[in-house]
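Title: Comparing notes on inverse folding

I've been comparing how different people in this forum approach sequence design from structure. To keep things fair, I'm posting one structure and asking everyone to reply with a full sequence. Here's the target:
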């Protein structure tokens, strides 16, 4: 089975249903070095050959420099050269601020906000009008669950968001791709994966949600798909089903701003 081809199918479906990419777009791809971001980058580079949309890519890595030490992204740079994609590594102090200066007891929220803001700035710096992130199907369901249980609200991040203050579209082309398929595709293509050095890696609220969902899926197969279906039927945050044109028409409002 060609797992990478399946990923391309999931991505093409998302691009078409949610109207994610247009001719002339210059897309910044956030590449952390993890499996999700390298599969996203490789998938977007491959889609250019047959999807019928003329767009360009710029890969951007924000180095959090955990412990004040530069990360090693040479393997990602080599992948970008192979794909013919412009690549930039931007050193930051995010790791030191979150863990050394602020000593956050729950660091993930602050870290995510800082990384997102820095990515928005970098995308504009390199002349991009779109920012692509590597969230997949399991991320969607986990976030939906965390919002429901931890915050008491129904919703999730959107597949496509207009950031008015940045004049930038943020898109998530892998929202239909299950994490297991992303992992298999990365392995099948022998894509370089940079191991996270985050001190909180593996000890987050998302890991708790992932474990809960794995247990429910084992007990009741299809549980995650039913949650995903409930989110889409709700129509919240642009997650509705396509209309007669074949595209989802998201409701106005609730832009993801910092």
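Reply #1:
Here's my take.
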């Amino acid at each position: 089975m060609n797992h990478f081809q399946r990923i391309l199918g999931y991505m093409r479906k998302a691009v078409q249903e949610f109207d994610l990419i247009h001719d002339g777009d210059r897309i910044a791809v956030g590449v952390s070095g993890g499996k999700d971001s390298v599969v996203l980058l490789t998938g977007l580079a491959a889609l250019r050959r047959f999807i019928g949309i003329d767009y360009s890519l710029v890969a951007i890595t924000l180095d959090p420099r955990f412990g004040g030490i530069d990360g090693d992204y040479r393997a990602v740079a080599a992948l970008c050269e192979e794909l013919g994609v412009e690549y930039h590594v931007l050193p930051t102090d995010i790791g030191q601020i979150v863990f050394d200066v602020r000593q956050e007891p729950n660091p993930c929220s602050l870290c995510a906000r800082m990384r997102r803001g820095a990515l928005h700035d970098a995308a504009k710096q390199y002349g991009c009008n779109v920012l692509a992130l590597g969230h997949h199907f399991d991320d969607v369901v986990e976030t939906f669950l965390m919002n429901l249980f931890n915050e008491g609200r129904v919703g999730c991040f959107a597949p496509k968001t207009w950031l008015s203050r940045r004049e930038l579209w943020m898109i998530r082309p892998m929202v239909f791709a299950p994490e297991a398929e992303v992992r298999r595709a990365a392995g099948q293509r022998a894509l370089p994966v940079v191991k996270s050095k985050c001190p909180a890696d593996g000890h987050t609220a998302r890991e708790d949600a992932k474990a809960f969902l794995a247990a429910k899926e084992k007990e009741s197969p299809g549980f995650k798909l039913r949650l995903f279906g409930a989110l889409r039927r709700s129509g919240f945050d642009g997650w509705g089903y396509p209309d007669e044109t074949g595209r989802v028409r998201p409701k106005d409002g609730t832009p993801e701003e910092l």
